[in-house]
Design goal:
The chain has 12 helices and 19 strands. Helix 1 crosses helix 2, helix 2 packs across helix 3 and helix 10 runs antiparallel to helix 11. A hairpin with a 7-residue loop joins strand 3 and strand 4. By secondary structure, it is α+β, with helices and mostly antiparallel strands. The strands form 5 sheets. Strands 11, 12, 13, 15, 16 and 17 form a 6-stranded antiparallel sheet that branches. It has a 5-stranded parallel sheet with strand order 8-7-6-9-10, sandwiched between helices. The protein has a 3-stranded antiparallel sheet with strand order 2-3-4, with no helix packed on it. Helices cover 33% and strands 29% of the residues.
């Protein structure tokens, strides 16, 4: 099977115009990706068990059959695409207590409850995809769904079964432990009236919501079926934020201190810290007792929020996001980076947002720092390029 190599990373070129790839630790070996390259990589991301022939067949249906094999061979020669014996495991970082965080997020839970009350009709068949604790499926059964499937790939599905029995809906629910992308599971479940899920990652797309939406729509929905959530929007806003800049500066200083102390060249580690930026301070959350998220009072917005992604998920046909935008600064300041956030529309009326100036959700801030801050004045153009290329987080360029 084919896989996108973990030995490379995606990045933008210096101007933020072209998406490129380079080997980990060798930023100088930048290789720009063509439209054909990106189409092939996206097809690998969309398929559960991609092979050379299945990817070529899919690309041929999209009109790229003449160059598909050469494109895949070229990506293989550059080390971007590799052959693997089995599909690489995803989401292995999950621990049971993550479900506690999701369950006790009142903003998200209230929105889902309202949307399910509007969507579930007596006699429906509902799929709770990536069910976790099975709460959405339990609510659907209590609202009158005749049959509820709960698919979950982790041991937490055993707790979901207990909860279903404890809430008197065990007889209406069927639990499957397995991969949502498994064709055998799709055959067993068949068509349903409603698919409810929550594949919104800390970096918006990094739980595969786009590829999963394509699969759920094509595999489980009948002609009148619907997805919940229905629509996803993502935004960025340029910011000045001394706290964020100081945190990254301190990390670079710490690495340089270790380099001097032990007489080791750690230039590649410095580059890694600068490239990664804050990336939600995942390690700090785990290991720094004094860690606190940056408050909105510690940020200055330098422009209006700009939407860089807007998709009706039941119409989605892409697994990647590639966006290049230009926004006009509305005030002067030091361009330290961008803040990213999302709005999820569960239906036409019910939505919630991770914008940090609104009521907080369990999703963390997403701050990406510019490579070298610059001053901007009102009216100056700020160019922001953002890409999501499957399983590797967001790739952001700020100019």
């Amino acid at each position: 099977m084919l896989s996108i190599s973990d030995e490379c990373r995606f990045t933008w070129d210096e101007a933020g115009e072209n998406l490129a790839v380079c080997p980990l630790g060798v930023p100088a070996e930048l290789s720009v990706l063509s439209a054909q390259d990106l189409a092939a990589l996206e097809e690998i991301e969309r398929q559960r068990s991609p092979t050379m022939e299945s990817v070529i067949a899919a690309l041929s249906r999209r009109g790229a059959n003449q160059v598909a094999r050469e494109t895949l061979s070229g990506l293989g020669n550059r080390g971007v695409v590799i052959e693997v014996d089995r599909v690489q495991a995803r989401d292995e970082f999950y621990t049971p207590m993550i479900y506690y965080q999701m369950l006790t997020d009142p903003l998200k839970m209230d929105a889902y409850v309202r949307a399910l009350e509007r969507a579930v009709k007596p006699g429906m068949t509902v799929l709770d995809a990536g069910a976790g604790l099975g709460i959405f499926g339990i609510l659907a059964a209590r609202l009158g769904a005749k049959s509820v499937w709960a698919i979950e790939n982790r041991p937490v599905i055993n707790i979901a079964r207990q909860l279903a029995d404890a809430n008197g809906v065990g007889a209406a629910m069927r639990f499957l432990r397995g991969d949502l992308f498994d064709p055998e599971i799709a055959t067993q479940v068949g068509k349903v009236d409603l698919v409810v899920s929550e594949f919104i990652g800390d970096e918006i797309f990094d739980e595969g919501i786009l590829a999963k939406s394509v699969w759920m729509r094509d595999s489980f929905l009948g002609g009148a079926g619907s997805l919940l959530p229905r629509r996803l929007q993502a935004f960025f806003v340029p910011i000045e934020c001394q706290v964020a800049a100081t945190r990254q500066h301190n990390k670079v200083q710490n690495v340089q201190h270790v380099a001097r102390q032990y007489d080791i060249d750690l230039g590649a580690v410095v580059e890694m810290v600068i490239t990664e930026g804050l990336r939600n301070d995942f390690s700090d959350r785990l290991y720094v007792p004094s860690f606190a998220e940056i408050s909105t009072e510690e940020m200055r917005l330098l422009a209006e929020p700009t939407m860089f992604f807007d998709m009706q998920l039941d119409e989605c046909n892409s697994a990647f996001v590639i966006s290049k935008s230009s926004v006009e600064a509305t005030s002067h300041g030091r361009l330290d980076g961008v803040l990213l956030f999302f709005t999820v529309h569960l239906d036409d009326e019910v939505n919630f947002s991770s914008a940090p100036w609104l009521r907080r959700t369990h999703w963390p801030q997403i701050i990406y720092l510019a490579r070298g801050a610059r001053r901007v004045d009102a009216g100056d153009a700020i160019r922001v390029s953002i890409a999501y290329t499957g399983g590797k987080g967001l790739c952001v360029s700020i100019n």
